[in-house]
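[#protein-structures] MJ: dropping Mediator of RNA polymerase II transcription subunit 11 here for a structure pass
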Amino acid sequence: MEKANNSANSANLADPVWATSRTAVQIYDLGEVEKSITRLLRLAASSVSLLTLPQTDEPGSKLPQGDERPEQFVMEVGEYFERLDTIQTSIRSALSHIRRSRIAPSAINAPPPGFVPPSLGIGLPNESSSGSINRGLQEEKVDRDAWKGILEGLTRLKAERDAERREEAEESNAMKE
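AK: finished. C-alpha cells for Mediator of RNA polymerase II transcription subunit 11:
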C-alpha cells in the first residue's frame, strides 16, 4: 500500500493529470518502469565492462582501475538487482490492475512501429493522411460515440418526417373521399 502511495505522490509531483485516476497513476508508473529498464540496461553494460580486463578498456573510459574495479562491480550489480526487482514489482502491479479492471485483451494492442501518440481531441478524418489515422483508443471511442449520436439523431429525424408525410397523405386521401 505504501508503494501505491509513493507512486501517487511521485505522479503528483510530475503533473497533476497523472493523479486523476488509478489508471493514470498506473500509466505514469509504467512510464517510470520504461525509464528504469533503460537504466537497467546501462547498468548491465557497465557491469560487463567491469568484468573485462583493464587492458581492454577504451582510452578515455571512466572505468575504475585496480581494487576499485571489483568494488564498483559489486555496487552496480547490487543496483542492477534492486532495479530489476522494482521493475518486476511495477509490472506485476500493472498487470494486476489490468486484470481487476477487466480490460479486454483486444483493447491492449501494441502500436505499429514508428507510432507517435496524437494530441487529444476528435475531428473529421484527415484526407491528407495516407489512409492511417494515428489516434489513441480514447479518441477513437469518443469519435465513434459522436458519430453514433449523429446517426441516431438523423434516424429519429427521418422517422418523424416519414410519419408526418404519412399523416399528410392519409389526411389528403380522407379529404378526397
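MJ: nice. The chain has two domains: 2-106, 135-177.
AK: one more thing. Confidence is low (pLDDT under 50) at residues 1-5.
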